[in-house]
Design goal:
Length: 332
């Protein structure tokens, strides 16, 4: 009988294959931990949200080492989603930065072991001045858990580091929990896209959140005329405003229709200038709301194959948007 095939020695496994195996193991371990974290949420999580939502000041996030790096990100995410927050380094806090923390604030302290010595002064300060302290830790009986008004306990899961030493799974859970807190608070407050835009005026997020009203042309810049206006006059107004179209507005102020270059071609004859605007216009013109995101308006223009679109409020024209306005604003 043939001898059974022996296993391929680890040294002979291609490096690239071994790398993928290692990466998948890490992600599987951390995914399992996140599922466990989600299953563990309950009353303490809700009480933590109540504490944070009830403070008049800001959320002071703190942590040492890797937990500190996660803390920076949590503070940033909170601040950008309507919960003012900032990070205080625990060691610096012991040398004067405790003065940054007021009785109107709440403290969110991160420590997987719950025994980080550098957090002691912040914890003592919070207890002394009755500042709400929320601890995020894997140690349910740790010093931090015992000192906290609310302790959010991370499920006991192995670190993805094969030696079980480098903070990996634990910091992933901290980061995810910070996101969960931030988003839950956002939804509690009804934080709107407009408020988000105020906090993100620059970069791609700011461009995506530009509204039609921010970039449309309004007032005297709008090319508009009345239904009984001779086309000889309507053409002058249409050319002067350089949009390649003109809106036809009735005595009631409602947008009745639009005259475009296409309408002019369809009515092209020696009699065109003798006609009135309502004889040439296309009725029931497409229009958008000024509160619409410019990115949505751009999508409508692309789908319809048009370069201009009127902006109305209660069916009354308040502006006109050109596709180039969106592109100049960086909307894409």
């Amino acid at each position: 009988m043939p001898e059974p095939a022996s296993e391929v020695p680890a040294s002979e496994v291609p490096a690239s294959e071994a790398d993928v195996v290692s990466a998948k193991r890490v992600l599987a371990i951390e995914a399992k931990a996140l599922n466990a974290l989600a299953d563990s949420l309950g009353d303490p999580f809700c009480r933590a949200l109540d504490l944070i939502a009830g403070v008049k000041g800001r959320v002071v996030v703190t942590g040492m080492g890797k937990s500190g790096h996660i803390g920076h990100k949590i503070a940033s995410t909170m601040s950008s989603t309507g919960t003012p927050a900032f990070f205080v380094h625990p060691a610096e806090a012991s040398h004067g930065d405790l003065g940054m923390i007021t009785t109107d604030d709440a403290v969110l302290a991160l420590s997987n072991s719950g025994e980080t010595s550098e957090l002691a002064d912040i914890a003592d300060y919070a207890k002394r001045f009755e500042i709400p302290l929320i601890g995020v830790t894997g140690g349910s009986r740790s010093t931090l858990a015992e000192a906290s008004d609310v302790a959010l306990i991370l499920p006991n899961n192995e670190e993805a580091c094969p030696m079980g030493l480098a903070p990996t799974t634990s910091t992933t859970m901290m980061l995810a929990l910070g996101d969960a807190i931030s988003v839950a608070l956002l939804e509690r407050k009804g934080f709107s896209p407009d408020e988000f835009h105020v906090l993100h005026p620059g970069g791609k997020l700011g461009q995506r959140l530009v509204k039609v009203s921010d970039i449309m042309h309004s007032g005297d810049d709008m090319p508009v005329t009345t239904p009984d206006t001779p086309m000889s006059e309507a053409l002058i107004e249409m050319s002067a405003k350089s949009f390649g179209c003109i809106g036809v507005v009735g005595d009631d102020g409602l947008l009745r229709g639009v005259i475009t270059d296409g309408d002019l071609r369809r009515h092209m004859s020696s009699e065109l200038i003798n006609k009135t605007a309502d004889e040439v216009m296309t009725e029931g013109a497409l229009a958008i709301n000024p509160e619409m995101l410019a990115s949505v308006a751009l999508g409508i223009m692309n789908v319809r194959g048009i370069t201009n679109i009127f902006v109305t409020k209660d069916d009354r024209p308040v502006g006109i948007l050109h596709i180039h306005d969106c592109l100049r604003a960086g909307v894409a």
